[in-house]
């Protein structure tokens, strides 16, 4: 079986019509879901894990991980917290940014005493 490293262009009148009917906000939502799934997968691979190992680490079935990484899953805050905890990063880092003054899942609190 041949593997493609780039997306193939396929012309479909039905797909074109669906895209025309999709609101700009829905397109942004879909894009963000795909970007988040890709970011999570990149972080999992950076740990040297495959899908099965990641599933064990988060206590989920491999089929659920496949769903998460499909780019269509709408993550809850609780799930993102579980994922970031297992990856030992902040939730902000799941989105490709690091919160200022934070390392991993810990927060830095500065208290000034007079």
Could you give a quick summary of the protein structure above?
It contains six helices and two strands.
What does this structure look like?
The structure is a single chain. The protein is built from six helices and two strands, in the order ααααααββ. The protein has helices spanning 13-21, 24-46, 51-58, 62-68, 77-87, 91-94, and strands at 102-103, 106-107. β1 (102-103) and β2 (106-107) form a beta hairpin. α3 (51-58) packs across α4. The longest helix has 23 residues, at 24-46. Mean pLDDT is 83; it is low at 100-111.
Uncertain segments are 100-111
CATH architecture, by name, is: Orthogonal Bundle
CATH topology: 434 Repressor (Amino-terminal Domain)
Average pLDDT across residues?
Answer: 83
* Rg, Cα atoms, Å: 18 Å
Assign the CATH class: Mainly Alpha
Largest sheet: 2 strands, antiparallel
CATH-wise, what's the superfamily?
lambda repressor-like DNA-binding domains
Q: What's the SSE pattern?
A: HHHHHHEE
Q: In oligomeric terms, what are we looking at?
A: single chain
Q: Percentage of helical residues?
A: 40-55%
List the keywords:
2 strands; 114 residues; elongated; mainly alpha; 4% strand; 6 helices; 434 Repressor (Amino-terminal Domain)
